[in-house]
Amino acid sequence: MRETEAEARRPAGSPRLGVGMVGYAFMGAAHSQGWRTAGRVFDLPLQPALAALCGRDATAVRAAADRMGWAGSETDWRALIARDDVDLVDICTPGDSHAEIAVAALEAGKHVLCEKPLANSVEEAEAMVAAASAARSRGLLAMVGFNYRRLPAAAFARQLVAGGRIGDLRHVRVTYLQDWLTDPEAPLTWRLQRDRAGSGALGDLGAHIVDLAQYLSGESVVGVSALTETFVTERPLPAGPAGGLGGTAAPGERGPVTVDDAAVFTARLSSGALASFEATRFAAGRKNALTIELNGSRGSLSFDLERLNELSFHDHTEPAATAGFRRILVTEPDHPYLDAWWPPGHGLGYEHTFVHQARDLVHAVAEGAAPVPTFADGLQVQRVLAAVEESAAKNSVFTPVQVSV
Ligand code: SOE
What we know:
Elements: H1 5-9, E1 16-22, H2 26-41, E2 47-54, H3 58-68, E3 72-74, H4 77-82, E4 88-91, H5 98-107, E5 111-115, H6 122-136, E6 142-145, H7 152-162, E7 169-177, H8 194-197, H9 201-217, E8 221-229, E9 234-238, E10 249-256, E11 262-269, E12 274-280, E13 289-296, E14 299-304, E15 310-315, E16 326-329, H10 352-367, H11 375-393
Parallel strand pairs: 1-2, 1-4, 2-3, 4-5, 5-6, 7-12
Antiparallel strand pairs: 7-13, 8-11, 9-10, 11-12, 13-14, 14-15, 15-16
Helix pairs in contact: 2-10, 5-6, 6-11, 7-9, 9-11
């Protein structure tokens, strides 16, 4: 097998994979958890070493590095990607810096993991795909972080669909609902600014459900018809850097929200199946509610992230009198990822998706195999997001209904 640039730098026989990460807020914490835990739970061909964490504020990044288990810290991502002890760069920053960091890291001879959505535009995503394919010939790998593929129930659903258990696909029905913007006084964080985030609920939540729908079905979205809305167009500025979703508002000054609050769209898939998608941050009471149902000629599958150790399966070939949705507890050692975890019934959670993501990427690096989802998969999702925005902007495709009251 050809020696990769990363392997060439590693002392002979050392099983180390040096990771450098940019960004340490919510996603950075989740990815750190993944890198820290993967090698302790799974038997990996390379041991992830948390080499250095990067952020602009020296004191804050050092404190975060200590808290999350990173050996070093940097305040400039260019210094991070130049480090000899970093083989792989993990990008957990807002979307406006994904393309620049990813392309530079690949050119510097590093493998790359980039948080979703891959970029803020199709053009940026295309540049990232081009950089990834040039780097591939030098033995370097690039992956986009759609972590929900790594839910055992989702990976298992994919196996069932691919194995023909639901037959020919007719419908995919997906929602991703959160409520952290319901309060009109919630602060204007970077996630509400188009120049930082690219889009709103569409890119943040819609990207996940488009990827999951395509992954589970094994198909691509080939066309969309969409509506988007910004319900609250102005918000108070944040009091300080907002790490998680909310943060505190500063009194007085306000600014414009420049992204969508919600996106609803229908789609046609490559087989002709019909799909519907809803992504919103205004579904009061829904915290992180992702549901997906697939209906086929032989059966149906249904998943709910709030019950993530379960998968519902209806086998339509069974006699009607006894058929019906049954709950599969996805905690058996035969289910994806679960042979390394707890005994049956002792379920997993959100954070484990990041452990599985790290595990899969480490295997890919060790084996020199392209890790999925690739940057090309991320670009395909980006194209769907762009089509949704284009459709929503074209009021002409929206047929108004006369209101008679
Ligand atoms: C915020 O809406 C968010 O943190 C997303 O950015 C993540 O991708 C998702 O996993 C949880 O919600």
